Amino acid sequence: MRFLHDTPPSHELTYNDVFLVPSRSSVSSRLDVDLRTTDRIGTTLPIVVANMTAVAGRRMAETVARRGGLTVLPQDIPLDVIETVVRFVKSRHHVYDTPITLGPHDTVGEGLNLVHKRSHGAIVVIDADERPLGIFTEADAVGYDRFTQLHNVMSTDLLTVADGTDLTEIFDMLSGHRLTTAPVVDAQGRLIGCITRKGALRSNLYRPAVNRAGELLTAVAIGVNGEPAEKAARLRDMGVDVLVVDTAHGHQDRMIDAVRGVRRAAPEAVVVAGNVVTRQGSIDLIEAGADVVKVGVGPGAMCTTRMMTGVGRPQFSAVLECAEAAHELGKSIWADGGVRYPRDVALALAAGASSVMFGSWLAGTHESAADVQRDPDGRLYKENFGMASNRAVRNRTRREGSFERARKELFEEGISTSRMYLDHDRPGVEDIIDQIVAGVRSAFTYSGAGDSSEFHARAVVGVQGSAGYDEGRPLGTSW
């Protein structure tokens, strides 16, 4: 990457302070762009979902891995639950979504409690032999009380798709019947998944993120307190692919010791460590055993660190410096936080990140871990909170004594509750992935780059003021 006028500015830069300059390009189509990451983890999209309790769960992990990204499960989830989630994600189909199922004698109320768990918005009603009997959606509940059994309200005009059917054929079949979702069945007629029109289309465009065994990739966060090496060994035995040693201030002795311990406990695992914002911080974590360094202090939407402490660094400058240090040692970085739009993802990749990590952007989706709620106007939302907030500290210290918990709760650096509304047009994580990928692919073509390494090498970045940034924002109404 180079700056437009060659000389880097003397001041620090956020994503809003910079822009990409078009270059001569021989890349004829955005579909010709290869978004495989340069960190050799196996992800085919440069997207990592942050280890936030309200965001990263098994639905998110499954869906994002199916499309090529990675989800980091939070460190405060008990290990027995982590093992169940990891086993679940690794057993998921690479194309078909996991259906929500109920029996014919379950109720409308039970269906309404589950229907928003996935973006396809449908529950498959099955018999005792797991054969589909009908489809239930929220619209089917209109006019019925919550105790009505599903067999009285479900749609029995059922189209099923045979396992192995060509994706183009599935898309045409659903389009021809004006359906959005269909159950997928095996040769005996038993339910094995479901697929949507968009899902068939996406599976043609995206490649899943899988390990050498062909399983969807999983990642889990490890804190620096307790016994991080012992936890790493247990996660290794569960088959977790990526271990993320995570703390707010990654450039400290305790963190370096934790990374060394994790590396010894899991010598073959991919180890990610952070967070840091300086060249020396990156070097120290890599020398301790990290394959990937996580970069970012304070840019997250739920983080109050900079306002509370004054500590941090504008994210574009941090990514640029840390990426240069990591590349010199043959390693990679993830840019963690500060992302609000697809342009920010592209700029992080231009600065040298192999992947971009974010969480709050995905908090208001069907797949996030929080439960869906309705406001007084009937709008759907989910509650999000920062991982250094009072709420997160309470969750993380629930096994400690009351005095110690109360003492730690005095110190918080995050928002404890925030309403994240589901976007009517993009209510699912896959909708946001589509948006990001479209923007990043186009950024590559504007720079004449066919893959991530070429993009970082060819990118030309200019510096702008706030007026330049505002000029690029679309106006949805007349002026």
Report on this structure.
By secondary structure, the chain is an alpha/beta fold. It folds into two domains: 2-94 and 208-367 and 425-471, TIM Barrel (Alpha-Beta Barrel); 100-205, CBS-domain, CATH 3.10.580.10. Helix content is 33%, strand content 17%. It has helices at 58-67, 79-90, 108-114, 167-176, 197-205, 228-238, 253-265, 279-288, 305-309, 315-328, 342-351, 390-396, 402-409, 429-447, 452-458, 466-471; strands spanning 2-3, 18-20, 47-49, 70-73, 100-102, 123-126, 132-136, 161-162, 181-185, 191-196, 219-222, 242-246, 270-276, 292-295, 332-336, 355-358, 373-374, 380-384, 418-421, 460-463. Helix 6 (228-238) packs parallel to helix 7, helix 8 (279-288) packs across helix 10 (315-328) and helix 12 (390-396) runs antiparallel to helix 13 (402-409). The longest helix is centred in the C-terminal third of the chain and has 19 residues, at 429-447. It starts with a strand and ends in an 8-residue tail after the last helix. 47% of the residues are buried.
Write the layout of secondary structure elements.
Layout: E1 2-3, E2 18-20, E3 47-49, H1 58-67, E4 70-73, H2 79-90, E5 100-102, H3 108-114, E6 123-126, E7 132-136, E8 161-162, H4 167-176, E9 181-185, E10 191-196, H5 197-205, E11 219-222, H6 228-238, E12 242-246, H7 253-265, E13 270-276, H8 279-288, E14 292-295, H9 305-309, H10 315-328, E15 332-336, H11 342-351, E16 355-358, E17 373-374, E18 380-384, H12 390-396, H13 402-409, E19 418-421, H14 429-447, H15 452-458, E20 460-463, H16 466-471
Parallel strand pairs: 1-20, 3-4, 3-16, 4-11, 5-6, 8-9, 11-12, 12-13, 13-14, 14-15, 15-16
Antiparallel strand pairs: 2-20, 6-7, 9-10, 17-18, 18-19
